Amino acid sequence: MEEKETMTQENEEMNINADADVPGNTHLSNPGGEDALEKIQAELQEQKDKYLRLFAEFDNFKRRNAKEKIELIQTAGKDVITSLLEVLDDCERAEKQLDESDDIATNKKGVQLVFNKLKNTLQAKGLKAMESINTDFDVEKHEAITEIEVPEKKKGKVVDEIEKGYYLNDKIIRFAKVVVGK
Known about the structure:
Elements: H1 2-14, H2 26-29, H3 34-75, H4 78-100, H5 104-124, E1 127-129, E2 142-148, E3 158-163, E4 166-168, E5 171-174, E6 176-181
Parallel strand pairs: 2-6
Antiparallel strand pairs: 1-4, 3-6, 4-5
Helix pairs in contact: 4-5
């Protein structure tokens, strides 16, 4: 019996349902009072501010990226054109020499030098001519202009090349226009 009285006294001291005796219900729905609501609203405002800043930063990134892309496209050929200016200078000198000289052999040699310089400059930039004559016709590399009658062993092969095809860094930039044997 003595144990029962001790437990009853402990239960009265711990009173589990203490809120039930308080009149009204504001203490239940707003446990921290107005401070908690203000804190949550401030946190929400801070998150909105971060979102707006991030959105603006991303928008600026997109604009800057588009501007850089346009600039890159406009100046993409600058390197090649700059290297070709020397060849252009040589062409102008050759033209002047052709007007002044009647020596065909010298003129031919000078034009050949300019042509070789142009080929070497373009090869240094990654341009490579496609070898087509006497190879099998390939629709991935060749554009057939016409077909002509040929002996049996040349059927389906490229007989003549109207325009050379070219690779730029192993990517086809111009298909070869060819005559195919049938």
